[in-house]
């Protein structure tokens, strides 16, 4: 089995399918607790993805609780599938969230915040390697979004599984992570 993005995508999609709801809940909790060890809590603007339940993604609800408990500004996005652009909105008590046609929970509207203001981004992924490169769903939304952020923005991947040695077919537009957090490990990349 090679390590091209296509091969890794199918490998990790099938590994995720084997996870029970209970596994996901427990591992997501462990990941949220691991985040407390990172040196990110002096920042204010945090971008969080809302999980696509059908894809067995890391449940970020606990991360949202951590952030709101620490009085952070939380941003969530709306994705435009034609332009591959993400627009970020402040999550407040009044935010209405609705699933789009791809089952991605999104804010209906709200106060927009530019990518340049965001200091920490929690990045969804299917797989990642020991150099901090990730395999996403292949739509390019996050690479585009991360390229709009400041160079100092902290990019943190969240994964149920450990790192692969390397991804064979990297692309110049791929934005590497600063950290990746799994239930068992915290990977730091330079």
UniProtKB/TrEMBL annotation:
Top EC category: ligase
Domain of life the protein comes from: Bacteria
Names of the cofactor(s): Mg(2+)
Keyword Magnesium: yes
EC number: 6.3.3.2
Catalytic activity: (6S)-5-formyl-5,6,7,8-tetrahydrofolate + ATP = (6R)-5,10-methenyltetrahydrofolate + ADP + phosphate
Annotated keywords: ATP-binding, Magnesium, Metal-binding, Nucleotide-binding
Family membership: Belongs to the 5-formyltetrahydrofolate cyclo-ligase family.
Protein name as catalogued: 5-formyltetrahydrofolate cyclo-ligase
